[in-house]
Design brief:
The protein has a single domain, classed as Immunoglobulin-like (Sandwich). Helix content is about 5%, strand content about 60%. It is built from one helix and nine strands, in the order βαββββββββ. Strands 2-1-9-8-5-6 form a six-stranded antiparallel β-sheet, with no helix packed on it. Strands 3-4-7 form a three-stranded antiparallel β-sheet, with no helix packed on it. The termini are close together.
């Protein structure tokens, strides 16, 4: 499922969190998908009875950066806390896979978040599965 992203200057992230905690707002906001040089999604599928989650970036322009895919959840008496990350690059018009997680698929619920930093800006998308 494709998500609308929040884009913010990466260096200003700590300042924005501080201002948000104080009830202030700063120059970050949601943008339409057409205004963004990239978009992300978390896809889900099944393989051999397991739930497969993938972080995916769609690049409108050539881009390089870093990503962090985190998945947390519980169900069936088990808990999951997974974090993957690294560098990536995608050419103009390309789609790149940014991490993959295989999980139990029996009554568990998961929260997945993909955070991307590219060209000095931060992007994120999240999905509850």
């Amino acid at each position: 499922m494709l998500k609308t992203l929040t884009r913010r200057p990466a260096r200003a992230a700590a300042l924005l969190m501080t201002l948000a905690a104080a009830g202030c707002t700063a120059g970050a906001g949601e943008m339409s998908m057409a205004d963004q040089p990239l978009s992300c999604e978390i896809t889900k599928s099944t393989a051999n009875g397991a739930l497969v989650l993938r972080g995916v970036v769609h690049a409108e322009e050539a881009v390089t950066g870093t990503y962090r895919l985190t998945v947390t959840g519980s169900g069936g008496g088990n808990r999951s806390n997974i974090s993957q990350g690294g560098r990536f690059s995608a050419g103009q018009g390309e789609t790149a896979n940014l991490g993959m997680v295989m999980l139990g698929n029996r009554g568990a619920s998961y929260d997945a978040r993909l955070e991307i930093e590219a060209d000095g800006l931060g992007y994120q998308c999240a999905e509850r599965i």
